Amino acid sequence: MPDVLASTVHAADALRLLLDAVATDFIPPRDNPASIDILGWLELPLHDARAVIVTSFNEGIVPSSLNADLFLPNSLRQRLGVLDNHRRYARDAYALTVLRHSRRRLEIILGKRNAAKDPLKPSRLLFAASDAVIADRIREFYGKSHGADASRPPLPTVLATELKEAAFTIPRPRPDVAIPKEISVTSFKAYLACPYRYYLTHVLRLRESGEGSGELDALQFGNLVHDSLAAFGSSTWAGSRDVDLIRAFLDEQLDKLVRQRFGKRPNATVKVQIEQARRRLRAFAPQQVHLAIEGWEIRHVEFPGENASVAFPLLDGREVLLSGRIDRIDFHPEHGWRLLDYKTSKEGQKPDKTHRTGLGKGAPKDAKEWIDLQLPLYRHIASGLGIEGEYSLGYFNLPEKLEETGLRLADWTEDDLTEADDKARQVAGLMLDRVFWPPSQDINESWSQRGIEAICQSSVFDGEHLITPNP
Question: Which among 326, 337, 357, 342 is positioned nearest to 395, based on CA atoms?
Answer without folding.
Answer: 342
